[in-house]
Amino acid sequence: MAIQTNLRMTSAEFDEWVERPENYDKLFEFIGGEIVEVPSNAKASNYSSTINGELYIFTRGKDLGHVTGEVGGYMIDGERYAPDVAFISKARQVDLDERGYNHIPPDLAVEVDFPSTKESRYQMQIKLWHYQQAGTVVWVVYPEDKTVMVYIPGHPPKLYGIEDTLDGGDVLPGFTLPLKTIFPE
Description:
Blueprint lengths: L2 E6 L2 H8 L9 E4 L2 E4 L4 H18 L5 E4 L5 E3 L2 E3 L3 E5 L18 E5 L5 H17 L2 E6 L4 E5 L6 E3 L4 E3 L8 E3 H4 L3
Parallel strand pairs: 8-9
Antiparallel strand pairs: 1-3, 2-3, 4-7, 5-6, 7-8, 9-10, 10-11, 12-13
């Protein structure tokens, strides 16, 4: 769930605005020209932490790249997103940016849509378009349905159910994650 601030500005204005001291303790995204404050949600964070942990364990010691969590923001096709989990390969970026939103989009972004609302689905459609333009693979996690929709640029989306297993594809060859790990019975 996101809280609209009803402020419209350019991405450069957003970058300056979000760095103000009064905004340091808040998480914002810049979606479709609008600032959206992303509130804390422990249940959604729990789902993303599970995925983050599995990705971290898989990549640890392999020098493959960086796994970031829900406070790691990225510049995506002129917008600013804070995916719940992201991976960017070291082949594309050796060191992550130390301030602001990372200037290179992730290879993989995981977005947990919980609770899913008409507004969150609308914002997700905008984000998906921009992620695709940036070449980012996206996993959208729907806890209420226990499904994950996978978007790979240039391919039709694919829906995974509780009996299925996600894989890292070309982004993380060899990585697998059964949905039962994300959604334990």
